[in-house]
Write a structure and sequence with these properties.
heterotetramer, A alpha/beta (about 600), B alpha+beta (about 140), C alpha/beta (about 600), D alpha+beta (about 160), A: about 600 residues, alpha/beta, Ubiquitin-like (UB roll), Alpha-Beta Plaits, four-stranded parallel sheet, C: about 600 residues, Glutaredoxin, Rossmann fold, 5 domains, four-stranded mixed sheet, 23 helices, 20 strands, globular
């Protein structure tokens, strides 16, 4: 293809046709500031409404300034990005945006991580010449997410994630003009919307408009309470991302420092959700084998594929949109909830603490987990199996508040018994990981043979929908993988339409899986961050001496001492769940009077 | 009605229609007839054009005058709505502005019956590209 | 037959009336009566001749003689010379400025005919609900000619050569637009008629749809033939129920006659039209917003390119033109590109319909050749300013346009001249303002509209226009500062320079043009805290003139807040701390005792 | 937004579902459907939007986003006699604001609201294109031209 020649700030550049001015400038070290624009290249996610008008530049011969994000390079273009006219326009537009934004940066949850704040600093805004009325909206608190739309700058990223990527449709642009904002239907609270709490809106929000519900203060209080035994579990994706909050390169594994920090914070026991992930594999893998065997034996009642169920946003999604498929997903609870159920029974008994005095905290890359642990089916007499779920970001804040210098912490090990895990548990943190872990176990249980090669490269990657056929000793097993609920929907629709058939499907709501979760350190639009975390996860797996869940000695011990066997009555009671139809229409219709 | 299947059909139809109109407008011909057009665009209707049209239809019949009352679009004299155009056979059309029932009565009695001009005529202030020009 | 041998038509248009045309008519009648001619010569008071600058105007029939600037005392001369002796009164005849000869009217009288109706050629002539009447006036003849005699390329060539530019505001070459759509390869294309007329004060599209719907249908079919589209969509305001009804009727009749549908006129060309309804969003006049709206979405514009001609409705190439543009197409085909391009100015060909409104005598639709001056439109066709007030400004182009002044009155109107003077053609709204209109308030009015109608997608338009409005509001309330004017100017320029679509790119024009042409008026507001036009309530002080007050108590009784005190038959006074400046006392007082400053 | 669920009449709901079907339940027809829905119910309460969303298979949020974008759509029931004052430029320069003020004073309701007895609702309108008659007021389908503040009383008296 012929290259296009343009000049930006007197620098000649050659680019491919179709390249935007923004990308072209980037290749020669000219960083044009952006605000609404978002491009997660590795995930094929792009938000380009051209709405904020921060990235405007001067193109010779054009009457108006052009947005660099949306303007394609044309041969011979002469572009200036820093003339007086551009700088004045950019600053004025920024002042306008700030004039309709609360001035509470010092106490804003997003302070220091806020794209808007950083941009104001970069542009040298010291005064706002155009003050005036500010738009106000009702604050909305859900179990997971807080929406303070007074801080919305209408970048539309959340709307794009919610609709285009997740196809959840909880959010839409509403109103017009000055009162235009992104909101739910009828501006009701998120809890009344189809929101799955995936938190991807929060993950991309450039300001403090969308944040997670902060539970750190409750945790500080509980840790100080001598009557309470406070234990913590940490999800696999947390260790691959927490370091970023302390300035480490994305993809730096900080498992040992993480454990040290949690101990220093005063948690009585520091455990690993990976342990519960291994347990999940035992239950879910066994369920898969049972359903597969029934199916192969011609049981008409049995339907395949089996769908994974460890992602709470995904569970919310199919309860809302595919209630007719409620009997297809595995009944296995998520690792967070399996952990809680075992902790408040088996482990509580072991240390002789009443479940009411045992507080289970989870550190999750996820915001939907906050909602999940509040679901009624995961409570005993009103006491939840998991009391609080903190995001990776909240943990970082907690560590900072406790004066802990994270970078100089020594490595430490998880406590026993619920801190012991295999490589299979670790890879739960990435797309393709749960199904790979399940396959490692199911293969050996089904064939009775030992796996030659533990890593299944064919299940890995970042493509939104992936499929692979595995050879179970002559039996071809079709595996489907989707991350992102839009991809999940596509896969489910094709199953409903009968255009493809799978034995098992793994679905995760977030891009890249839990590593790209809504509770993770903010990627600020750089998808390489998520790719690096994925590498770290597989690196941790490879370094583990045991890499198959059914070989975890502590899991074996748990079954021996407490549960009996997978899918036993006790297992069913503690480790499995059921799903509800959330789709019903809420319209009341009045019968005609005679 | 018959479909117009070819350009020649259309041409023939147009010539037929134009012929009929000519007959209606030409003085002295047995088919000639008084034509009253009421501007019935939104502004006209809002100013009472419907009432005026009804008045013309009923009164012309009552007074035994053979006339054709039809509606038409905006004549562009918004300041003078309702506006009515009257074409007497053999004469150029005349437009009257601010027509209410009283004015309509006067138009019937003086102009339509006797060809006498009445107050409120709106002179034509434009050229048009079609051959039909009205001249006061 | 009429008993009158002669008729003397006296213009009773408001403009002429203010120059005593009614006295003239009375004088003529008296003179005729005195001479015993009342039975033979009739005086008829008419509507406006469109020549008010020269009023009062008299037209003597049947010899069709025009007299101008006729005073009541001229009645005697007209009757004695013209009526009795048959001699034209030379000094009252109109002098043609070009030839310096007296126009005696025996030949073609067209000095008062500044208008030329192309787009409006059938409005008011045909029954819009009868296709036969349209056909009798050459309806569908252009379509027939195109389908049988010309290739799409040839037709596009004619349209290009005619120089027709979009009448919706942008002024883009219509032929070029058609050409682009025609050259894009696609399995499906669309042509769209933008009938979402939204400029406040513009209603020519509605009039065309209500008066001559077939011309739009015919032109869309021609457009479809040229661009390769077999489907047309009319995006029409839901607030135009009559236009919708008539268009629906027209479409059905065209289908019944086979002028829409399959194999039109045996040519093998298929074309049909559907309606899509707007729902009250000015921004949907912008073509990308319009397309999103037709697709069932919020009418938010998107960045161009891609242009609709490449990627439009449902992602397919789509040609969007407005109603008036379409109404020009059939005449161009029938009369030729050369005919059309002979009308108008160098770069703006043909005519433009203006909706003349505001403080002007002859409110109405006016179709004039491009190049006609504002003075001709306002003072001749429009009959001048209402109530004999002084002309102050004319606003063209609606919320996107600007306010022009006295000094612009003789500029020939075309796309480029209007832009050069800080306004624009827009869709053709033309609002005339007089000395009572405060230009700061007018700017505020337009910003009020823009703030209401901004879609909110881009920050400069969403927030910037709001801030402009707030600054203007403060100025009209007496809270302005001189440096507000600099802030207005900078903000206006940035909004224009950075907004996403045409709405924001032009919304500050009313502010910029009034700032430029009425700077003194702004200064009066921010320095002296006075509104010279007396329109800004908060800047006004009502007092009672003791010399005139008779103590009738009418003002005290009408005051809604009880701010006026005074005994019967004694001078009243207004308590300034209570007065809300509603002006009720001023309206009520019969003795000119209430003063406003 | 009030949280009280309103009850819809069954035959109206049936009619609405039928309308959606007549548009092939296509999402692209959302605006056309909403026009018809407002024709049936007089306004677009949340419940109606939910039905439309369900029938056209679009999110309720999207429907709400569209409803709140276009000024023609309303979620507030109109009065028995909806009064609209044209705020086009021609009407504005000819004193529409004073007419509006008079309506506000007489009806004692602000713009966008309905009188407590449900008789009148007061709204502003974009240009209705009857500029020759400015200022223009519409009551229901009836247009009043050249309205002065003094004329407001007479107009209201017609509906007393």
């Amino acid at each position: 293809m012929n290259k296009i020649k343009i000049t930006i700030d007197n620098k000649p550049i050659e680019v491919d046709p179709g390249t935007s001015l923004l990308k072209a400038a980037d290749t020669v070290g000219i960083k044009i500031p952006t605000l609404c624009y978002l491009h997660l290249e590795d995930l094929n996610i792009e938000n380009k409404p051209g709405g904020c008008r921060i990235c405007v530049v001067e193109v010779a011969g054009r009457r108006n300034l052009a947005p660099a994000c949306a303007t394609q390079c044309l041969d011979g273009m002469i572009v200036r990005t820093n003339t007086m006219r551009v700088l004045n326009a950019r600053k004025t537009v920024m002042e306008l945006i700030l004039s309709d934004h609360p001035f509470d940066c010092l106490i804003c949850a997003k302070s220091g991580q806020c794209d808007l704040q950083k941009l104001a600093q970069d542009l040298g805004i010291r005064e706002i010449h155009y003050k005036g009325e500010q738009s106000h909206y009702k604050e909305d608190r859900s179990p997971s997410i807080i929406r303070d739309m007074d801080k919305c700058i209408l970048c539309r990223r959340c709307e794009m994630m919610c609709n285009d990527f997740q196809t959840v449709g909880a959010l839409s642009g509403i109103n017009r003009g000055f009162m235009a904002v992104v909101a739910t239907a009828f501006e009701q609270d998120l809890v009344k919307s189809p929101c799955t709490y995936c938190g991807q809106c929060v993950a991309v929000c450039p300001t403090g408009a969308l944040t997670e519900v902060d539970h750190t203060n409750q945790i500080i209080r509980l840790l100080a309470n001598p009557k309470k035994t406070v234990i913590v579990q940490t999800a696999p994706a947390v260790r691959a991302a927490l370091g970023e909050e302390f300035g480490l390169e994305p993809g730096t594994l900080v498992t040992g420092k993480l454990v040290s920090a949690l101990k220093q914070l005063g948690f009585d026991y520091v455990f690993d959700t990976d342990f519960a992930a291994d347990l999940t594999i035992m239950e879910e893998g066994t369920e898969l084998l049972k359903r597969l065997t029934n199916y192969l034996n011609g049981d008409k009642e049995e339907s395949l594929p089996i769908l994974t169920s460890c992602c709470p946003a995904w569970v919310n999604f199919f309860e809302e949109y595919f209630p007719e498929l409620n009997d297809i997903p595995s009944t296995a609870r998520s690792p967070q909830q399996m952990f809680g159920a075992i902790a408040k029974t088996y482990f509580a008994d072991k240390i002789g603490v009443d479940r009411k005095d045992l507080v289970v905290v989870s550190i999750m890359p996820c915001l939907a987990k906050k909602y999940e642990c509040q679901r009624d089916e995961f409570k005993v007499d009103g006491n939840p199996d998991v009391d609080f779920s903190l995001s990776t970001r909240e943990l970082a804040a907690l560590i900072k508040q406790a004066n802990i210098d994270f970078l100089t912490l020594p490595d430490d090990d998880f406590d026993s018994p619920m801190g012991e895990s295999t490589g299979a548990g670790v890879i739960f943190g990435t797309t393709g990981g749960v199904i790979e872990a399940a396959v490692r176990t199911a293969y050996e249980l089904y064939t009775g043979k030992k796996l030659e090669k533990i890593g299944f490269e064919e299940l890995r990657g970042m493509a939104g929908i992936r499929q692979a056929t595995l050879d179970f000793d002559g039996l071809p097993i079709n595996i489907g993988i989707a991350h992102g609920l839009g991809n999940a929907r596509e896969l489910l629709e094709s199953i409903k339409a009968g255009t493809c058939s799978f034995h098992a499907i793994e679905i995760m709501a977030c891009p890249g899986g839990c590593i790209g979760g809504g509770g993770q350190p903010l990627h600020h639009g750089n998808s390489q961050v998520i790719v690096a975390r994925q590498k770290a996860i597989y690196q941790e797996d490879a370094s583990k001496p045991i890499r198959k869940s059914h070989e975890n000695p502590y899991i074996k011990k748990l079954y021996d001492e407490f549960l009996g066997s997978p899918l036993s009555e006790k297992s069913h009671h503690l480790l499995h769940t059921r799903y509800f139809d959330r789709s019903k229409t809420k319209v009341i219709i009045k019968k005609e009077q005679e | 009605m018959n479909k117009v299947k070819t350009p020649d059909d259309l041409k023939k139809l147009r010539e037929d229609l134009q012929g009929k109109i000519k007959l209606r407008e030409s003085g002295g011909h047995p088919e000639s007839i008084v034509q009253v057009r009421v501007a019935m665009a939104t502004c006209g209707i809002a100013s009472g054009a419907k009432e005026v049209m009804t008045f013309f239809m009923e009164e012309l019949e009552k007074r035994g005058i053979d006339a054709m009352v039809t509606q038409t679009g905006c004549m562009s004299y918004c300041y003078a709505e309702p506006t009515v155009e009257v074409t007497l056979p053999g004469k150029s059309p005349l437009v009257f502005g601010f027509v209410n029932n009283r004015k309509a009565d006067e138009i019937i009695e003086k102009y339509i019956k006797n060809g006498e001009l009445v107050d409120g005529i709106i002179p034509v202030t434009y050229h048009t590209i079609t051959e039909k020009q009205q001249e006061v | 037959m009429s008993k009158y041998k002669m008729n003397i038509l006296v213009c009773g248009g408001t403009g002429c009336k203010s120059s005593a045309s009614d006295l003239l008519a009375a004088a003529l009648r008296t003179e005729l009566a005195e001479r015993g001619l009342s039975g033979e010569v009739q005086v008829v008071v008419t509507g406006c001749f469109g020549f008010c600058e020269q009023g009062p105007v008299v037209n003597v029939l049947p010899d069709n003689t025009f007299y101008i600037k006729v005073k009541p005392e001229d009645a005697v001369t007209i009757v004695s010379e013209h009526i009795i002796k048959g001699r034209k009164v030379q000094n009252l005849l109109y002098t043609d400025p070009a030839t310096q000869t007296k126009v005696d009217g025996s030949g073609a009288i067209d000095f008062n005919k500044k208008q030329l109706r192309i787009a409006l050629r059938n409005c008011g002539f045909i029954d819009p609900e009868k296709i036969e009447e349209a056909i009798a006036r050459d309806g569908y003849a252009a379509l027939a000619r195109v389908l049988t005699e010309s290739s799409p390329e040839e037709v596009i060539g004619i349209i290009k050569k005619s120089g027709l530019r979009g009448r919706g505001g942008g002024g883009f070459s219509t032929g070029l637009k058609w050409e682009i759509t025609s050259t894009v390869e696609a399995d499906q294309k669309y042509v769209v008629c933008n009938a979402d007329e939204g400029d406040p004060g513009a209603f020519m599209d509605r009039s065309i749809l209500e008066g001559d719907p077939h011309t739009v249908i015919e032109a869309m079919a021609i457009n479809g033939y040229c661009t390769g589209a077999d489907k047309g969509l009319v995006y029409i305001r839901a607030e135009y129920p009559l236009a919708i009804e008539r268009l629906k009727t027209a479409i059905n009749q065209a289908r019944e006659y086979g002028l829409l549908g399959k194999d039109i006129l045996g040519s093998g060309f298929n074309f049909d039209i559907e309606l899509r309804y707007g729902a009250g969003a000015f921004v949907c006049g912008e073509e990308t917003a319009l397309i999103h709206s037709m697709e069932g979405n919020r009418g938010e514009p998107t960045f161009k390119p891609p242009f609709p001609s490449e990627e439009g409705y449902l992602g397919k190439p789509t040609n969007v033109n407005n109603v008036e543009t379409y109404a020009n197409i059939p005449p161009i085909i029938l009369k030729g590109a050369d005919w059309f391009s002979s009308i108008g100015t160098e770069k703006s060909k043909g005519t433009k319909v203006f909706a003349l409104a505001g403080k002007v005598n002859n409110v109405g639709l006016v179709e004039v050749p491009m190049g006609t001056t504002l003075r001709e439109v306002i003072f001749e066709i429009g009959g001048g300013i209402k109530d004999g007030k002084k002309f102050k400004s004319v606003q063209t182009g609606g919320p996107s346009g600007g306010c022009l002044t006295e000094k612009h009155l003789d500029i020939p109107i075309d796309y480029d001249n209007l832009i050069a003077s800080g306004s624009m053609m827009g869709s053709g709204g033309m609002i005339v303002m007089d000395e009572d209109d405060c230009m700061v308030s007018v700017a505020k009015y337009y910003l009020d509209f823009t703030v209401e109608e901004s879609c909110g997608k881009c920050s400069p338009c969403r927030i910037g226009n709001k801030r402009l409005h707030e600054i203007l509001d403060e100025i009209t309330k007496g809270n302005g500062k001189p440096d507000d004017l600099d802030r207005l100017r900078n903000l206006s320029e940035v909004i224009k320079d950075t907004s996403l679509c045409g709405l924001g790119q032009s919304s500050p024009n009313p502010v910029l043009s009034t700032l430029e042409h009425f700077h003194d008026e702004y200064m009066a507001h921010v320095v002296d805290f006075k509104c010279p036009a007396g329109q800004c309530r908060d800047l006004m002080i009502y007092t009672i003139d003791a010399a005139n007050c008779v103590g009738c108590t009418a003002c005290a009784r009408v005051c809604p807040v009880g701010a006026i005190a005074g005994e019967r038959k004694e001078v009243h006074s207004i308590d300034q701390t209570i007065c809300i400046k509603c002006g009720a006392c001023l309206e009520k007082c019969k003795f000119n005792a209430v003063l406003v400053s | 937004m009030s949280s009280i669920k309103i009850e819809l009449h069954e035959n109206q709901v049936k009619e609405l579902v039928e309308v959606c079907r007549s548009f092939n339940n296509e999402a692209g027809e959302l605006i056309n459907v909403l026009h018809k829905a407002q024709g049936i119910f007089g306004y677009l309460p949340a419940e109606v939007q939910e039905i439309v969303a369900r029938e056209l298979k679009v999110s309720v949020a999207k429907v709400y986003g569209v409803v709140t974008f276009y000024s023609f759509f309303t979620m507030v029931p109109k009065g028995q006699h909806p009064i609209s004052i044209c705020m086009g430029t021609a009407c504005y320069v000819r004193g529409a604001e004073k007419v509006l003020d008079e309506f506000k004073r007489k009806l004692k309701v602000p713009v966008g609201e309905t009188t407590p007895d449900g008789k009148f609702s007061l709204n502003c309108l974009r240009c209705v294109g009857a500029c020759g008659l400015a200022p223009v007021v519409m009551v229901g389908d009836k247009t009043y031209g050249r309205v002065s503040p003094d004329g407001v009383k007479e107009i209201l008296a017609e509906y007393a």
